[in-house]
Amino acid sequence: MNILLVHAQPESTSLTRHLVNVARNFLESRGHSVVESDLYAMGWKAVFDGEDFPDRSDPERLSFIAESAHAFASGSQTSDVVQEQNKVLAADAVIFVFPLWWFSMPAIMNGWIERVWAYGLAYGYQDKGNAHRYGEGSFLGKRALLAVSVGGPEKDYAPRGINGCLEQLLFPITHGTLFYTGMEVLPTFAVYGSGRVDADVMPQVEAAWRNRLERLFDDAPIPFRCQNDGSYPDRHILADHLAPGVTGLAVHTAER
Ligand SMILES: Cc1cc2nc3c(=O)[nH]c(=O)nc-3n(C[C@H](O)[C@H](O)[C@H](O)COP(=O)(O)O)c2cc1C
């Protein structure tokens, strides 16, 4: 299978880079083809701005969505963006490896998403607005996995932990960014207390990580509800009979 590893940590001795190295070696040893986007090494342009649209459809007013649609449809996207889109399109699975920064991904990786996730590709699929999203779209059939190095202790990210449950904190990425495009998103792999993983604990971390990679194409994805399977009759609001009386992010994940 083709696997894309997108990662964002320039320090070679970091835990993030260690997870990347373990992943590359393990996946290749299993016969997979691994391609990387090492965002710092690539000097990835993190900021989504007017330079992303060298051939503006409207030179007077910068509408990011309209220009993204025009650039994607007319073939006038910048070459770095096209290259990354092609990597994603060729991948059977995309793995994002990053340190948790302010409860999210580093800006350089967020900028990768903003620029690579074009209108017509990742959203506005088939130029039909929101008709195809959440379980449908260009990236249907691909798997996605977040591997996150987390500074804080696991307790702080427990279901009642002070920081909030990690999987819920990452919902804007897993649900709003990846599942949105049609990808099947696996439960997040996290290493907590990342600033001080003792040498004698590291083999357990590596084993757990390899175990998840081994099951990359077998593990059940997070059971996010699909927009167009009847769960959202008007494509906006969850049907009354599902999670009755409950509100919040959790309603968008079905009970297993
Ligand atoms: C800018 C910045 C923001 C951070 N935000 C968080 C955070 O929100 N939660 C947390 O637990 N740790 C946070 N940390 C700690 C990192 O998660 C930790 O340094 C990282 O996981 C270490 O792994 P690495 O060696 O791969 O970078 C932050 C660190 C930095 C530099």
From TrEMBL:
<keyword id="KW-0560">Oxidoreductase</keyword>
<dbReference type="GO" id="GO:0005829">
    <property type="term" value="C:cytosol"/>
</dbReference>
<comment type="similarity">
    <text>Belongs to the NAD(P)H dehydrogenase (quinone) family.</text>
</comment>
<dbReference type="InterPro" id="IPR029039">
    <property type="entry name" value="Flavoprotein-like_sf"/>
</dbReference>
<dbReference type="InterPro" id="IPR003680">
    <property type="entry name" value="Flavodoxin_fold"/>
</dbReference>
<protein>
    <submittedName>
        <fullName>NAD(P)H dehydrogenase</fullName>
    </submittedName>
</protein>
<dbReference type="Pfam" id="PF02525">
    <property type="entry name" value="Flavodoxin_2"/>
</dbReference>
<feature type="domain" description="Flavodoxin-like fold">
    <location>
        <begin position="1"/>
        <end position="213"/>
    </location>
</feature>
<dbReference type="InterPro" id="IPR051545">
    <property type="entry name" value="NAD(P)H_dehydrogenase_qn"/>
</dbReference>
<dbReference type="GO" id="GO:0003955">
    <property type="term" value="F:NAD(P)H dehydrogenase (quinone) activity"/>
</dbReference>
